[in-house]
Amino acid sequence: MSLNYQDRIPNNVELGSNRILQRALEHWQPEFMRWWQDLGPTDFQASDVYLRTAISVDTKGWATFGYVRMPEYRWGIFLADPENDRRIGFGDNLGEPAWQQVPGEHRANLRRLIVTQGDTEPASVEQQRLLGHTAPSLYDLRNLFQVNVEEGRHLWAMVYLLHAYFGRDGREEAEELLERHSGDADKPRILGTFNEPIRDWLSFFMFTYFTDRDGKFQLKCLAESGFDPLSRTCRFMLTEEAHHMFVGDTGISRVIKRCLEVMKELNTDDPVAIRKAGAIDLPTIQKYLNFWFSTSIDLFGGDSSSNAASYFANGLKGRPDEAKFEDHVAAGQAFALELPDGAGGVRTGEIPMRNAMNEVAREAYLKDCEQGMARWNRVIEKFGYSFRMTLPSPRFRRNVGSWAGVPVDTTGKIISREEYNARLSEWLPTDDDRAFVYSRMHGVFEAGKIASWIAPPERGINGLPFEYEYVRLQ
Ligand code: BYC
Ligand code: FE
Ligand code: FE
Description:
By secondary structure, the chain is mostly helical.
């Protein structure tokens, strides 16, 4: 299906044939633009950025690349093509035709899922708004802005659903998506991670690796939804999402590589010497990883969740890659959970499979996270060092679920509260670590140049070299 770029709001949903909806969205559009100006990337709005823009919703050849000023980026509404005779793929309504309208009895839950998803998108743009000033290269600056404009488009995707299918409450929710702000004391974003500040690029890379990857898995679950417009929206969002995780994956890899080069040069693994030489030492990278991993796994919700069970039962939210599971009803099965027993030990608890759907998604996510670990460790191995990056135990530093608030070390062992507090500085970035990393952040805005704490990428964007002038500063 081709994308209509003639309308004020680019779309492939025949917006022009629904005047009321079109007018409502055209009313929201200037509010979005005001939000972008106020809370999107600071400055750089007049610069030409080498951005990709969607031109179709095919998985191949869907994007075109060219210089765009960010405020002129064509944020639009793009849904993956409909599947002929699509059926609900799981839960109690398995096999029934997918819904083209919101069933009344599922309205509140669907709205809540869409609002929660929608809230994260602009939140991430707010979190990242200052990073442009300290970009390590024009290549990285461009990637940051690519991610930002697409998260803005993901907000559009959810706002479209709210406006098109939820009437007046939907319109109100759409306004509130621009009124809550990341880290705001009175009106924070809904989910914890999206209120954490991102002041440095190491945090940005960790966020795009771990938190955008939560996005990938949540979108996969919602792409299974029996509510077809939601499914189609999420399927196209997933196409854009891959690059966000690529930015994180290669970003972390490049910080590690630069550190290893310095270690080789100086023939030392002493963090003090490495820092003195301007690179970020591996133990500090590991601490940032521990921080962002532990906050990101909270995003999957409780390990035992009646909300998750009803979303699944009702066909609203499935498992990632639902087709790979044998039994799509999952009634009467049990799931074994390891839980704190309240006396310093661990016990195994059984819960109904449907209540464990958050955990099932989290496990798929953990596996996906491991792949980066393996790649980065191969780089470290190649340089001949024995240090290995590791994912901390999923029990570590949890704020949501059965392990919330339980003092656990990074291997998952329950320890005393005193020991936990005493050792936190071993596991998480301290104020000093953060101050050091922040001190390394300086904008490098000359094509082909790069900051000394990170290695250049192996290749550029869209077949272009790293040296290309990805952003023309104005
Ligand atoms: N922080 O029954 P439970 C992305 C609340 S990222 C604060 O376990 P449920 C992106 C929960 O709301 C993907 N609160 O949770 C990435 C509930 O509150 P109430 C975003 C939390 O409902 C990077 C209570 O705890 N998409 O796209 O089963 C850049 C009990 O919860 C948190 C989605 O999240 C938390 N972390 O599952 C840009 C998909 N976790 O009702 C974008 C839509 C839970 O007791 N959301 N709570 O007041 C969902 O599917 C579900 O709402 C959740 C939670 C998976 C988030
Ligand atoms: Fe997104
Ligand atoms: Fe993303």
